[in-house]
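Anyone? Bumping this.
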Amino acid sequence: VHPYEVIKKKRDGGALSADEIRDFIAGYTRGGIPDYQMAALCMAVFFRSLSPAELAAWTEAMLHSGDILDLSDIPGPKVDKHSTGGVGDKVSLALAPLAAACGVKVPMISGRGLGHTGGTLDKLESIPGFRVDLSTDDFRRIVRDVGACLIGQTARLAPADKKLYALRDVTATVDCIPLIASSIMSKKLAEGIDALVLDVKVGSGAFMRDLERARELARTLIQIGRGMGKRVTAVITDMDQPLGRAVGNALEVAEALDVLEGKGPADLTEVTLVLTAEMLVLAGTARSTVDARALVERAVADRSGLKKMADIVRAHGGNPDAVTNRSLLPQARTQVPVPTAASGFVTGIDAEQIGLAALALGAGREKTDSSIDPAVGVVLDRKVGDAVKTGDRLATVHANDASRITEAVQRVATTYQIAAQPPARRPLIVERLDAA
Amino acid sequence: VHPYEVIKKKRDGGALSADEIRDFIAGYTRGGIPDYQMAALCMAVFFRSLSPAELAAWTEAMLHSGDILDLSDIPGPKVDKHSTGGVGDKVSLALAPLAAACGVKVPMISGRGLGHTGGTLDKLESIPGFRVDLSTDDFRRIVRDVGACLIGQTARLAPADKKLYALRDVTATVDCIPLIASSIMSKKLAEGIDALVLDVKVGSGAFMRDLERARELARTLIQIGRGMGKRVTAVITDMDQPLGRAVGNALEVAEALDVLEGKGPADLTEVTLVLTAEMLVLAGTARSTVDARALVERAVADRSGLKKMADIVRAHGGNPDAVTNRSLLPQARTQVPVPTAASGFVTGIDAEQIGLAALALGAGREKTDSSIDPAVGVVLDRKVGDAVKTGDRLATVHANDASRITEAVQRVATTYQIAAQPPARRPLIVERLDAA
């Protein structure tokens, strides 16, 4: 197969064969096909999309570019959750222990963040001693014995995706549903899971701004997963403002612990419980989402989720006391209140601006080799729908570097929209899909 | 300007500013912008096209990536002709001396061929001693003193186009009218011309298969040229079969000499005279195409065109006697007739197959560093519309390497279509455009 012919065929709207796709992706991963030919193909895919058959072949080619974990010797259903991401999304931190406490095996391979705040791994590393760079053997052992393990992607899982994502990122071909979906699924299917719950975020703070695009992504992800023989459910959830109140690594860990103690913010708690319940249904641990929800709520009430979190922290080399003693988590030296100059109702909080405020404080990475300050971030004391009076505290900036405070406060203050009338309520759990 | 933003803007159908285009092309030419970002941008341009303003900026950026010849010190109008190319197109070889004989200055910078047969330069080099690698000073002198000079593109003229064309060639972004048009015009405008005649080929043997696309290309080329203050006329000519009878370097030179002597094939003679007449009109040498035609016909009849060809050959270091003594041109050792097995009328000759037959004999390059055999090729003894009887000679294969004869004969024999009824006549000169 000549790479030129493959690009031309896709460009002209033709259907690529599984062989053509496999050879192209394998050639690209090995370096025989140069970046510029893959860039041209990705842009052609942006305009022409991929058929279900092409998408399956594309994802399989990416999946088979590296190792695929085999967890079949671990008893019980292995279920993971993937979120398309958004500011303040720390759901995994509470969901993994809750699902494990309910008997589900959770082999979770996560990414690090670039921009805004850290990824799940960065958040976990704010727990003293917590290590995410475990071997595959340790990963397997912890999933089996503890029930959940959260590690970083290794170079051996879906290397094609790693290389391709870096290319898409600089060629304006990220924002393309078949390429997004095959990227997500190739990494998740490499984990050796039996089933997957997808949290597809929609709204101004999410990658998918409108519901139709979110639905299309959800259906595409389900279609790929089903095609590979996996059970997949997708939940579309609202991301019009940051999820929960905390944005910043240790601050988000603390908030996830609040959820495990039954005292988390309502929105974060609801999304966490809904997604965990879906995992239980897919695992066969519960017959219905209603039954599953009851099991998850019990794991909060009896603190078995919190206890499981301590077990996970211990297994990862971290200090399990930090789970109950918050003073063991990193604390920022300065807390600066952000007051409002107006009275009325909060009608909008731009999630991206809050993320950029946290980034300015040092909570995220501007470049892949930047270091993260685990203690800093922003806590939203008021959220959309809350009533405020002039002088009320809207949010609190947690800072270590005084020179970075001004930009953060400025960004937070100006991104709050205050109006005389309360905003229309938006549903938090927008839609549940279990068929492509 | 961030290259990513430029790609994304074009991908999403936005209009790029002249600054964005200039910076992107300059960055690419210098190497600061990598091939993969240019490949993505070209594919986005394939789908989104370029507006007239973007196209002007793109062409100017390519033009200004290198030197622009200044021939303003040479008296008289400088006019060139460019053809989009096709098998058997040796028009330039007769047109340049005819136009020069009529007083037009013809500064012609040509390419070498890849595939099929050689380019104009390769054909000229089949004349003993003819050199095309002249200095800019020699080029200027010969244009001034002789009236026409034909040299190869230097690395200093439109280097952006050279680099971009190589990239487009391997990323399936050649077949894109704005990119084709800006490539052609950036090279031609670098020649320091005042006016340009375009021969846009249409038909199964041309790059543009249908008239609508050919018209679009012609209009786009005219639009760019006019925008740069040049006089431009386009003629759309038929290329449904090879032009003339000869395909192969020295064979084509001989046929061009036939045209200069007034005994060339009708189709080649007509296209040559029409295009040369257009050059005279643009140069102001004639007031109308009718007057111009009469002047060009006189240059054939009084052999001043042939004499001018001898002058050009001499100026290029070649043996001018070859112009009148054909035995001085390279001759192939073997002439193999290709007979027909059917009677009726020739209804079609696939130009590409004839080109591939010539390539198989060694008349063209399979790779950029292949060497060419100037003597070999194919002569079409019968053309579309001719009546044939079983056993008649359809064509003659001129070969030096006996091992290559079989493939060539096979290709020629099978590409002739013979039917009981004569084909409908196709107009040779399809259309003339002088406004975008």
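Late reply, but here is one note on the structure posted above: The radius of gyration of chain A is 22 Å.
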